[in-house]
Amino acid sequence: MVRGAVATASLVHTPVQTRTQKMTCQDTLSSPSTPHRIQLRSDSANEVKKTLKQPVAKPKRKLNNNHIETKNSDNHKLTEYFPVRRSVRKVSKTVLEEKQRSLEDAVRNDMEDGLKVKVFEGKGRGVVAAKKFQRGDFVVEYKGDLIDMTEAKIREEKYAQDNNAGCYMYYFKHNNQQYCVDATAESGKLGRLVNHSRNGNLLTRTLSIDNKPRLVLIAKDSIEEGDELLYDYGDRSKESLKHHPWLAY
Amino acid sequence: MFEARLINSVTFKKVLDAIKDLLNEASFDCSEAGIQLQAMDNSHVSLVSLALRSDGFDKYRCDRNLTMGMNLASMSKIFRCSSNDDTVTIKAQDDADTVTFMFESKKQEKISDYEMKLMNLDQEHLGIPDTDFSCVIRMPAGEFARIVRDLSQFGESIVISCTKEGVKFSTSGDIGSANVKLAQTSSFEKEEEAVIIEMQEPVTLTFACQYLNSFTKATPLANQVQLSMSDNVPLVVEYQIPDLGHLRYYLAPKIEEDEN
């Protein structure tokens, strides 16, 4: 290596020549010969010492950290024994908050994934699962017009005159106030097409988005692909049963 | 809003002295239950775990959980400005980027406020499992500090071996070797001076002196220290802070020669 460097030094001029000068300088350091040279050497030796000292001094300043680190090559680390729980540490409260947030996002984005409309003989349209749902998963929103009770009464009377109107009014309580979601109007939304069963696989849940109550259907159990989605309309009134006897089942 | 008041500010000072050797900065996690701190030293060989219960404070209020990253050297500077018999009140707003230390002198004639900038520390938390230790040694904290100090003159590591008969601390180095044996005390007259060993199985482990020495900075906090050991598990050195909580140090053992 060194020989190669010297050889190139004879070919190339200035830059490498300085290097060879330095080398001779160090040579004189290691083998002093004449008093004449000693003078020169002590001078350059000081310089060499200075340059040597600087890098030594730096780690000293960091002693606290570096010192320990070098010594510890023969020490086990605690991370070998205890698992690191960086920020993945979640209290049950944050888990709950996250769930709520994902639910809200699903409603905001009008999610209707993994659902299929199917026509059932005898009861008309229904919705079946096109994918698996886990218990507690958001399935679909029961979307319609959010109306108050007075408006609901007016509409109810109007729909009662029309035998083909069907049953699309869902009454619920949110923060101690009675509301109704009216999905009678054909909207292309799937929530309104989910059929009734007293032992369905969905639950209704209300949540507040931008201070407006929304009605969502949540998986009550895990739901397999192809299962029909059903939930309890909750209406047991005599009047309703007269018009829709299937509500009893 | 967070507010914690401690009549004996010297206790907090001692806690600080006990951890600032190992840690440059640390996050104080405050909740309704109290103040907690968990942090490893830079080399990840040792860990400090501090718990101060809220009921140990003379006044404690924590409306929302908050984490305050503090530079311990700066904090130490602030506490050095206080007298031992001062009352300290630590205050922070919920989303504040500063913390205030207020010291009141005993006769209330002098009140000093120090506001310190908080740091955002991204620190790793370790999940420490509950362990049934093979050996649990309780001994006077001062004695432990003395043994560690003495032995670290001779070698870089200390072998702690615990048997039915007692506990032995030993080291060896260039000049020779040193052994200190402690027998279990038979009389229980002075609880503070007792050496009590609870042993399921004998254990021998090797630890670096340097860390043990840092741990003994907590000696002024408690009369007794508890060492818990099991094979292939970090050592736990625990100091009880009277009426307030505890300070625990965890130390990973040295790699034995035959392990390589």
From TrEMBL, chain A:
SUPFAM superfamilies named in the record: SET domain
Gene Ontology MF annotations: histone H4K20 monomethyltransferase activity
A Pfam family recorded for this sequence: SET
EC code: 2.1.1.361
Reaction(s) the record says it catalyses: L-lysyl(20)-[histone H4] + S-adenosyl-L-methionine = N(6)-methyl-L-lysyl(20)-[histone H4] + S-adenosyl-L-homocysteine + H(+)
Location (main, coarse): nucleus
Name of the featured protein: [histone H4]-lysine(20) N-methyltransferase
Source organism of this protein record: Callosobruchus maculatus
TrEMBL record, chain B:
Subcellular location: Nucleus
Listed InterPro entries: DNA_clamp_sf (IPR046938), Pr_cel_nuc_antig (IPR000730), Pr_cel_nuc_antig_C (IPR022649), Pr_cel_nuc_antig_CS (IPR022659), Pr_cel_nuc_antig_N (IPR022648)
Domain (Proliferating cell nuclear antigen PCNA C-terminal) ranges: 127-254
Main localization category: nucleus
GO cellular component: PCNA complex
UniProt keyword list: DNA replication, DNA-binding, Nucleus
Entry GO MF terms: chromatin binding; DNA binding; DNA polymerase processivity factor activity
Alphabetical GO biological process terms: leading strand elongation; mismatch repair; regulation of DNA replication; response to hydrogen peroxide; response to methyl methanesulfonate; translesion synthesis
Ranges where the Proliferating cell nuclear antigen PCNA N-terminal domain occurs: 1-125
NCBIfam families cross-referenced by the UniProt entry: pcna
The protein's role, per its UniProt record: This protein is an auxiliary protein of DNA polymerase delta and is involved in the control of eukaryotic DNA replication by increasing the polymerase's processivity during elongation of the leading strand.
Annotated family: Belongs to the PCNA family.
Name of the protein described by the UniProt record: DNA sliding clamp PCNA
Organism: Callosobruchus maculatus
Taxonomic lineage from the root: Eukaryota, Metazoa, Ecdysozoa, Arthropoda, Hexapoda
